[in-house]
Write a structure and sequence with these properties.
Layout lengths: L1 E2 H9 L4 H12 L3 H6 L4 E2 L1 H15 L4 H5 L1 E4 L2 E4 L12 H13 L7 E5 L5 H9 L4 E6 L2 H14 L3 E5 L10 E6 L6 H5 L3 H4 L17 H8 L3 E10 L5 H11 L4 E6 L5 E8 L2
Parallel strand pairs: 5-6, 5-8, 6-7, 8-9
Antiparallel strand pairs: 1-2, 3-4, 9-11, 10-11
């Protein structure tokens, strides 16, 4: 029989300590505090074998969130599978800006919020939970992704309308807040993308064409017929796409106020388009 501390030592010999710990928590069904307080407790042979198998898969590059089935985002846990992109910390920038804008507005009726390319649902669900007065619609072209998103919505008690469709094609106006984390990996970036991303996360949620904006441009064009000012569009983009994305936004919304926000690393990450009228 193997004690927990020996199991963790095995994991740390192959992976960073945090990853080894997360896999141990998953296999044993316990939290971090339990691991620390009960490191002499023995694990079963089946638990050890399962842990070693997961360590091997992780060492080969398979993402930890897919192995344990969930990932954190904005202080909540979201179920994930290879059908959806793993939530990233930088996307919290978009959510934070969206919530601040909603708090600043005075709508006579509940604001209509649309999350396009919802994936796991982490953006739309967070907005619905943090701003319960908003009416949130979340859209994805993938039925498999929507199934995961709906599961997450139910887990968090979020009032979200789920729609399978291509961008805004299946969404009726008006829209006051449009948020989107669309595929933005360029063709050149794809060739050198880390195997842990390219080999496991859904290509449909990653590749954005030659300049990474293949879906951004049609989304902006569709939005011209759907927005009900005062309105806001927030688009997560790749770190080298700020200028091109802002140019596309100005072309579609020449009278809008457009702002480019950096992430914590100082890279271009969020395009903000305020449409006043």
């Amino acid at each position: 029989m193997t004690p927990i501390k020996q199991l963790l030592n095995y994991g740390r010999a192959h992976l960073p300590p945090l990853e080894a710990r997360l896999l141990a928590e998953h296999v044993l069904g316990v939290g971090h505090a339990y691991l620390v307080a009960h490191d002499d407790e023995l694990v079963t042979a089946d638990q050890l074998a399962t842990y070693q198998a997961l360590i091997h898969r992780a060492a080969q590059g398979e993402p930890i969130p897919y192995l344990i089935g969930h990932a954190p985002f904005y202080s909540r846990e979201f179920a994930v599978s290879p059908a959806v992109l793993i939530p990233r910390p930088e996307t919290e920038l978009l959510v934070g800006r969206a919530l601040r804008w909603l708090a600043e507005q005075s709508f006579a009726q509940p604001p209509q919020v649309v999350d396009v390319g919802t994936g796991s649902g982490c953006i739309g669900i967070t907005l619905a939970c943090e701003c319960p007065t908003a009416e949130v619609t979340a859209v994805d072209i993938s039925a498999e992704a929507l199934a995961i998103a709906q599961r997450n919505g139910a887990a968090h008690g979020a009032a979200v309308r789920w729609v399978q469709g291509n961008l805004l094609a299946a969404v009726a106006p008006p829209i006051h807040l449009l948020v989107a984390n669309l595929p933005y990996i360029t063709d050149d970036e794809w060739t050198s993308l880390a195997d842990g991303v390219k080999s496991y996360e859904p290509t449909l949620a990653l590749r954005g064409g030659v300049d990474g904006l293949d879906l951004v441009r049609p989304l902006l064009a569709q939005a011209t017929h759907s927005l009900a000012p005062p309105s806001l569009i927030l688009l997560e983009i790749g770190w080298q796409q700020g200028e091109a994305a802002c140019t596309a936004a100005r072309k579609t919304f020449p009278h809008a106020t457009i702002t480019l926000h950096p992430d914590d690393a100082g890279h271009d990450r969020l395009v903000e388009i305020v449409v006043s009228g």
